[in-house]
Structures are given as structure tokens and as C-alpha cells.
């Protein structure tokens, strides 16, 4: 009989254990929140409850915290102790650990984390990689035939004060059997925020544009940046620096054929002379590098705008200007997003027979991962 009572008692205790084992947070208005304290970050106390999900309470409104499992606790003085919390009333707390107890108060607790987790301050100082890949395909058939494809990839290494980016993009479009877009660019960009809103940067971008007859282009730049807006969800950054711009051009096949045409008025030109006349002179000059970028993250979407202006010192009327604006919407899986926007690429002095402005409207599927 005694054995049966003992077994029943053990079973009841094992069933009751999970019910009575819980953390308790009390507030100034007398409310008691029972659950599991998962985080205290200096501004809020986060509690997971069975009846209301995750509850976030202002730390300034909390008068008592009692926990039943140990956690790492950092105080405003920098002291870190692992233990449980017990309330002494009126905001006073006791941290009870294996090395003893420490008396403190709710407002002095700035960070907590699980015993097996990494210190948040250490994590914040570590650099982390993030990756992004995007693809867009546009097709048309019927009265006209058109097929366009675009690929993007970006790898970003972000630290507490700096950011390193590697990126590439390729666009190709065929309209009625003729290439209407064939462009590649790849680059690297490094920014270091050395003081508050101030930063310095270096970057290099290379590529080609066969429709504009740009055989090879390269822009290397360095300068200073300033964050006009620097918030967790919004940034507005301006840049100005010095650049070196290089562009070599292909022979325009239409012009070349015109110059060497035997029926040309005045007679055909020598092939070397025709090649020189049908090719734009290369650009090889120092210049300015001016940029402006804005990013705003809202609850349901993100908006990004970028502007770039690169004039050559040898001829300020010879410049490149690019613009990109898009809105990004997350899908059911937050790793996947849809990006819709417009890109403008302006060359003030293009090859003969080529337009100055190219405008691309796009809808792009983007995958982000870490």
C-alpha cells in the first residue's frame, strides 16, 4: 500500500512539475504575466506565454521578475553573472548563482541570454555574410518576338562599423532576332563608418555593354560618405570622391560598312581609316564619383533608391549617370521576395547611332540567405 502511494505521489509531482514551474513578471499596475522570460534587453522584458503568445513589456513598467532557470545576466556596470532572478519587491532583484548572490534592480539589467548561447555583445562585433540571388525573365511572342533574361548576385559581409560587398549582374535581351541588351557588370564596394555618421569608401566596377559598343569599362573610386539618416529601418547616405574612368569601344559595324562601301560617294575609305571613324575614342580620365542611396523598410515592404553620377575631368560634359528604384515585397517564405522597379543608364556621349538613355522596367524574384 505504501509503495502504491509513493508511486502515485511521484506521478502527480511529475505531472504538476511543468504546470507550477514558470517565470513570473509583475508590473506597476498589478498585472502578473506567467510564462517563460526569454529576453531582457534594457528596454523590454519578453515573455512567452501559453495563453497570449509572446508578450513584450516595457522594462520601466516592471516591478518584479522571478525565474526558475538560470540565464546569463549583464548589468549596467558590465558585471555578468549566471543565475536565477528573485524579486525583493519595489523593483529590487536578487541574482542567485553558483558563485553566490548579487542584489540589484530591474532597471540595472541590460541584457540576458541563455547559458548555451553566445554573448550578444560578442555576436554584435562579429562580421556575418549574407547572400542574395535574383532572376527575371521576360518573353513575348505573336506580332513580335522578344526574350529577355537577367541574373543578379550579391554577397555582403557586414560588421558593426564596416560593410564589404561583391556583386554582379548580367542582362540579355533579343528582339526580333537582334540583340537589344547584352550587358555585364561586376564590382566590389567597401565602406567603413569610422566616426558616427561619417564614413570612407573604396569601390571598383568593371563590365561591358555590347549594344552600346562598350568593349570594356572600369570605374575605380574612393572618397567620403555621410549618413543624412541613420536609423535601424531607414538610411540615407551621400558619397563624394575621386574616380578613374576607363572605357574602350567596339567598331560600329553599320558605320564601318558604310565607309568601306564601294558605292560610297567619294569612294570607299581605307579599312584602317574607316575603323577609326567608326569607333568612338576611348575614355581614360580621372573624374568625380557622386552617389546617393536611400533605403526604407516598412512593415509590409521595402523601398530602395540609388543614384550615381560620374563626370570626367577631361570633359565634364562626358559623364555617366545611373538610377535604380524598386519596391520589395516578401513572399510567404521570408527568404523569397518579389522586387519591382526601374533602372536608368545614361551616357552623355554614346557611340554614334546609339541612344543616350536605356530604361529597364523589371519584376525580379529574389532569394536571400545567410
Low-confidence stretches: 5-20
Number of helices: 4
Domain module count: 2
State the CATH class of the largest domain: Mainly Beta
CATH domain topology of the largest domain = Outer membrane phospholipase (ompla), Chain C
| Structural class assignment | mainly beta
Q: How would you describe the shape?
A: elongated
Spell out the CATH superfamily of the largest domain.
Answer: Nucleoside-specific channel-forming protein, Tsx-like
Helical content (DSSP H or I, runs of 4+): 10-25%
**Strand percentage, roughly?**
over 45%
Biggest beta sheet summary: 12 strands, antiparallel, barrel
Reading the helices and strands in chain order gives: HEEEEEEEEEEHEEEEEEEHHEEEEE
Keyword list:
2 domains, twelve-stranded antiparallel barrel, mainly beta, Outer membrane phospholipase (ompla), Chain C, 370 residues
Describe the secondary structure blueprint for this structure.
Layout: H1 2-20, E1 23-27, E2 32-40, E3 44-49, E4 53-58, E5 62-66, E6 71-75, E7 80-89, E8 92-97, E9 100-105, E10 109-113, H2 120-125, E11 128-140, E12 146-158, E13 162-175, E14 178-195, E15 198-209, E16 214-230, E17 234-249, H3 253-259, H4 271-277, E18 283-297, E19 302-312, E20 315-330, E21 336-347, E22 357-369
Antiparallel strand pairs: 1-2, 1-5, 2-3, 3-4, 6-7, 6-10, 7-8, 8-9, 11-12, 11-22, 12-13, 13-14, 14-15, 15-16, 16-17, 17-18, 18-19, 19-20, 20-21, 21-22
Amino acid at each position: 500500500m505504501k509503495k502504491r502511494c509513493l508511486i502515485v505521489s511521484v506521478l502527480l509531482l511529475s505531472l504538476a512539475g511543468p504546470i507550477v514551474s514558470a517565470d513570473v513578471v509583475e508590473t506597476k499596475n498589478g498585472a502578473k504575466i506567467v510564462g517563460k522570460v526569454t529576453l531582457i534587453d534594457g528596454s523590454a522584458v519578453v515573455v512567452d506565454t501559453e495563453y497570449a503568445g509572446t508578450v513584450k513589456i516595457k522594462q520601466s513598467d516592471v516591478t518584479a521578475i522571478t525565474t526558475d532557470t538560470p540565464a546569463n545576466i549583464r548589468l549596467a556596470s558590465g558585471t555578468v553573472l549566471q543565475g536565477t532572478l528573485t524579486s525583493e519587491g519595489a523593483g529590487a532583484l536578487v541574482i542567485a548563482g553558483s558563485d553566490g548572490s548579487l542584489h540589484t534592480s530591474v532597471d540595472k539589467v541590460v541584457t540576458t541570454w541563455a547559458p548555451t548561447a553566445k554573448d550578444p555583445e560578442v555576436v554584435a562585433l562579429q562580421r556575418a555574410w549574407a547572400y542574395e540571388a535574383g532572376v527575371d525573365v521576360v518573353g513575348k511572342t505573336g506580332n513580335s518576338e522578344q526574350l529577355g533574361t537577367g541574373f543578379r548576385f550579391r554577397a555582403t559581409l557586414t560588421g558593426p562599423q564596416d560593410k564589404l560587398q561583391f556583386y554582379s549582374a548580367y542582362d540579355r535581351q533579343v528582339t526580333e532576332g537582334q540583340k537589344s541588351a547584352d550587358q555585364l557588370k561586376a564590382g566590389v564596394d567597401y565602406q567603413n563608418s569610422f566616426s558616427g555618421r561619417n564614413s570612407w569608401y573604396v569601390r571598383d566596377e568593371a563590365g561591358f555593354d555590347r549594344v552600346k559598343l562598350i568593349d570594356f569599362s572600369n570605374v575605380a573610386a574612393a572618397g567620403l560618405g555621410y549618413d543624412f539618416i541613420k536609423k535601424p529601418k531607414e538610411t540615407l547616405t551621400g558619397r563624394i570622391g575621386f574616380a578613374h574612368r576607363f572605357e574602350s569601344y567596339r567598331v560600329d559595324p553599320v558605320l564601318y560598312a558604310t565607309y568601306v562601301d564601294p558605292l560610297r560617294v567619294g569612294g570607299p575609305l581605307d579599312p584602317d581609316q574607316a575603323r577609326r571613324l567608326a569607333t568612338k575614342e576611348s575614355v581614360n580620365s580621372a573624374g568625380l564619383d557622386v552617389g546617393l542611396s536611400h533605403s526604407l523598410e516598412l512593415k509590409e515592404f521595402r523601398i530602395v533608391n540609388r543614384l550615381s553620377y560620374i563626370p570626367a575631368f577631361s570633359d565634364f560634359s562626358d559623364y555617366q549617370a545611373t538610377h535604380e528604384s524598386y519596391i520589395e515585397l516578401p513572399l510567404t517564405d521570408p527568404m523569397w521576395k518579389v522586387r519591382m522597379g526601374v533602372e536608368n543608364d545614361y551616357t552623355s556621349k554614346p557611340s554614334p547611332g546609339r541612344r543616350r538613355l536605356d530604361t529597364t522596367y523589371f519584376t525580379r524574384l529574389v532569394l536571400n540567405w545567410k
